[in-house]
Amino acid sequence: MLDVNGTDLFCERRGAGEPLLMIQGMAGHSLHWGEPFLCALEGDFELILYDHRGLGRSAPSDDPFTIADLAGDAAALLDALGIDSAHVLGISMGGMVAQELVLTAPERVRTLTLGATYAGGPDARFTDEAVVNELAGAILSGDPDRKVRTGWGFNVSPDFAGADGNFEQFSQIAALYPVELPMIFNQLQAIMSHDTSARLADVGVPALVVHGTADQMLAAANGEMVAALIPGARLELLDGVGHLFFWEQPERVAQLICEHVAAARA
């Protein structure tokens, strides 16, 4: 546990190599990366895993915040760990945090990988209303199993959702540190205020954008937009893959990140 910007954040370091700061999405904590993905990365990087403020194994907090605040947490976490700069991976809301981090503290970011995220602005596509309504109904129902099952169905592709053992692994992780309703609202409020669309042209580090074409939470058009706005960004669309692309194709995504970093070194 580390004191970061006045709150205690849970942090874990594993693996060997250059540091890779991994920033989770809405309602996600460090265990939500899944062991297959972490194992595919830890031979090439020292993984810096942490839980956002008020979530997972970090200290409880009900105070509202912005995406910029969460980016400040990420920078302060690197300070607390004595790390001047790191490769950065952000997914979904974590991708928004990573965008803000590279724009406000570019010297801290060696390379940038953004997954299943969006930039905000008038051309961005948020989650379809029907999906939002069904998710909201599940969250407000007070039924933990319904909430997890509904979220799972919208976050992965149908084939992956129905394959033996996948939901069981996800539900076990979700049951360990349930996310309370006030935190969901705080994160959603931060997301709705996010807009880096007019600033991404200022990103000067090598950038990789990864998005599944079957993403129901944030359509792949958002990934295409983010990649188009960042100078020289590489776009990788994973055919038929959902929002949790790193669950569905952990080895492939780890390979993409390794190739991205190697190309930046060269």
Helix content: 40-55%
Biggest β-sheet strands, sense, barrel: 7 strands, mixed
CATH architecture: 3-Layer(aba) Sandwich
Q: Gyration radius, to the nearest Å?
A: 17 Å
Distance between the termini: 36 Å
The CATH topology name reads Rossmann fold
Average predicted confidence as pLDDT: 96
CATH top level?
Alpha Beta
Number of strands: 9
Structural class: alpha/beta
Brief write-up:
It is built from eleven helices and nine strands. It is of the alpha/beta class and about 270 residues long.
Describe this structure in words.
The chain is an alpha/beta fold and 266 residues long. It has one domain: Alpha/Beta hydrolase fold, catalytic domain (Rossmann fold, 3-Layer(aba) Sandwich), CATH 3.40.50. 44% of the residues lie in helices and 18% in strands. It contains 11 helices and 9 strands. It has helices at 35-41, 67-81, 93-104, 129-140, 144-155, 158-162, 166-176, 181-192, 220-229, 245-248, 250-265, and strands spanning 2-4, 7-9, 11-15, 18-23, 45-50, 86-91, 109-115, 207-212, 234-238. The strands form 2 sheets. Strands 3-5-4-6-7-8-9 form a 7-stranded mixed beta sheet, with helices on both faces. The protein has a two-stranded antiparallel sheet with strand order 1-2. α5 packs across α7. The chain starts with a strand and ends with a helix.
